[in-house]
Amino acid sequence: MHDLRPRKQRITQTHNKALNDTDHEHYKKGIKVSINPDNDTVSNTNIIEEYKWVIEHTNLTIDDIANMNKSAIRGAFISPQEKSKLISKILKKDEKKR
Predict the structure, then answer these.
(1) Contact predicate 93/66, CB 8 Å
(2) Is residue 36 classed as helix, strand or coil in its secondary structure?
(3) Averaged in consecutive runs of 10 residues, what is the pLDDT profile of the chain (98 residues)?
(4) Which end of the chain has fewer CB atoms at under 10 Å, N or C?
């Protein structure tokens, strides 16, 4: 899983852009990617702000973010029941959009 932290990457300039073309290409090629805030006391952000930034400054969509979240949940160190419950919540929100 490739972990993206847009705000931290902008602050520390670890990438020329917070979410560079390679990151986007990795996702589009099927490499598992997740978007995460860094420690909020360090980077002064939260997951919602990170999602907003990604939507406004990249070609990624809300559906892309939902897919990233599903992949992240599948790889999380939680019980299968918890994974199913969280993924079901995402799927229900997807259904409401349509």
Answers:
(1) yes
(2) coil
(3) 58 52 74 80 81 85 92 94 94 72
(4) C
